[in-house]
Amino acid sequence: MSVLDRIRDEVETHPVVLFMKGTPQFPMCGFSSRTVEALTAAGATSFRAINVLQEPEIRANLPRFSNWPTFPQLFIHGELIGGCDITLELHDSGELARMVSEVQQA
User: PROSITE patterns from the xrefs (predicted)?
Assistant: First the structure.
């Protein structure tokens, strides 16, 4: 399986996927940390987190897959939501909580 197929499989198999630096318990950058905090505050009780620091092939190819150059990258229902700034904006507006709620009810 190619790395692009692996990425596609992750985002299609799991309703919420966060490609981040580090883990939710031990984020390795401030942007990843704030994104995890926003997801948790929005009610995401569980989500798939992939540490791109331990997955160099994913780190190198995800920007090509998503057409998004930076990390973290949040996907919900297979769709790229965005990075830290967009996730925080969605959280502040209440939209992230709605999106997470829909995923958890599905």
Answer: GLUTAREDOXIN_2
For tokens 């160099």, what's the residue? 56
Q: How many CB atoms lie within 10 A of CB 102?
A: 12
Q: Are 32 and 98 in contact (CB under 8 A)?
A: no
- 8 is an annotated ligand-binding site residue: no
CATH number for the domain spanning 70: value is 3.40.30.10
Q: Are 84 and 31 within 8 A, CB to CB? A: yes
Under-70 pLDDT residues of the chain:
106
What is the token pair recorded at 34? Answer: 């704030």
Per the annotation, does 29 bind a ligand? yes
Helix, strand, coil % (nearest 5) of the chain?
A: 50, 20, 30
